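INPUT
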Amino acid sequence: MDYTTKLSYQSMHWYNDGLKKAKIRDLSGAVTSLKKSLQYNRDNIAARNLLGLVYYGRGDVMEALVEWILSKNFQSHDNIANYYIQKLREKEGELEAINQAVKRYNQSLEYCRQNGEDLAIIQLKKAVTAHPSFVKAHQLLALIYMHTEQYAYARQSIRTAHKLDTTNEFTLRCLHELNQIRRSRNVKIKEGEKKDKHTITYNLGNEMIIQPVSNTLKDNAGLHTILNITLGLAVGVAVMWFLILPAITSSRQEKANIQTVEFSDQIATQTAQISALKKELDGYRSTSEETENVQATAASTQESYEIVMVMKAHYLANDMSDAAMLEELLKVNPDSLGTEGRKSFDEITETLYPRLCSSLYTTSKQNVEVANYDTAIVNLEQVMKMDEGYDDGGAMLLLAQAYENSGDQDQANLKYQKLIESYPDTDAAKNAKEALDAQNGGAEEEEEE
Amino acid sequence: MLNFEEELKKFQPSLEVEDLEQAVYQEDLTDMTDILREVVEQTK
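OUTPUT
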C-alpha cells in the first residue's frame, strides 16, 4: 500500500474519531482528533470543515472562519465551507457583536493580568451576554469568581461552559475544585455543629475527662413544660375569645332574633285574634242590648196594653178616681200600642187629660201663689206628661217658675229654654226669654261689680 | 486548589476579525506527507 494512502486512511480515522466526539459535544476531544487528522492529511476538507464547525460550536468564531477559508482555498467548489462563510457574512451585525465580545474577552484578560478582576468580571459578563456560546469567556469568568471566592457564580459559569464543551480539561478541573470546596465547607459546618454541641474535655491528673456541656434546655425542662402549657392555654383562650365566642354570640343573637320574630308574629296573631274577639263581643253586646230593648219594649207594650184595658174598664164603669187613673195612664207608652190599643187610650185620654190638666194647672197656680212649689212641681210635671204645651206653654212657664222659686235654677232654665224653642210665638215663651235675660243681666252685673 | 496565576497564563487572546487574514497566512499547513518527503530527500 502506498504510504500516501496509508496517511489518508489515518487522517480519515482521526476525522471519524473527531466526528464521534463532536456528536456528543466533546468539543475539546473533537478538536484534538481533527487536528491530528489534518496533520496526517492537510487536504482532508471534511476534517477541516468539521474543525471549523467545532470551533464555531465553542464560540471561537474567528478560528472557525480561518479553517473554513483555508478549506475553501483547498477546494473552492462543492465545499460546505462556502455555505458557512456565506451564512456568517449574511449576519454582519451578529459577527460584529461576536467580535466585540472577543475584544471584551481579550480586554478582561489584560485586566486580570493587572489584578483588575472586578473590571474583568464586568467585561466578561457583557461578553457572555452578547456571545453566549463563548466557552473561553465562561471559563475565565469562573476562574475569576473562584479567585474572588464567589463560588456560587463560579459554579454557574462553569456549568454553562460544561454544557457547551463537556470534556474540556479546564472545565472538569474547575468543577472538581468547586466540588472539593463544597465538601470542605460542609465538613466545616458539620464540625461547627459538633462544636456547638460542646463537650468539655479536661484532664484530671493523668485521666482525660470528656463531659457534655450541661444543657440548659434539658435542665429547665420542667419550666419549659409549664411555659408551654401556659402558652397553650393562652393561645386556647385567645382562640376561644376571638374565634369561638363571637361565633357562639352571633348564633345566640341569631336565635334570639328568630325567637323575637316568632314572638312578634305570635303577638301580632294574638292581637288580631283579640281584636276579632272584641268585635265579636261588641257584636254580641249590641245584640244583647237590642234584645233587652226589644224585651223592654215588649214588656212596656204588654204593660201598656194591660193598663189601657184595665183603665178602659174603670173609665166605662166610672169606678176609679181621676188621680188614680192618671197615675196608671201615665205609665202607658202610647207609641207601643197598636191601632186598637191606641184608639182605646185616646178615647180615655181625650176627655180625661184636658179635665185633669185644667184641674192640676189651677191647683198648681194656687200652690205657687202660696209658695208650695214642690206640690206645684209634681202636679205640673203630670200636666207636662199629658200635654206639654198646655195653655200655650203657660203650664211649662209655671213649672219653670216653680223650679226657679224652689231654688232649682238648672231645671227652671231647662224649661225656659224648651219653652222658647218649642213654643216661640207665645206669651209664655216671651216671659221665659225675659226671665233668662234677667238672669244673664244679673250675672253680668255681678261680674261687673 | 487551582492556581489562578498559572491557570490565567493558559488563557490566550482570542482571534479578532482584524487578525483573520494574518491568521490564515500563518496557519501551519504542514502534514505528514511533507515530513515524509523531507525525510526521503534527506536520506537520498
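end of record. Chain A has a mean pLDDT of 87.
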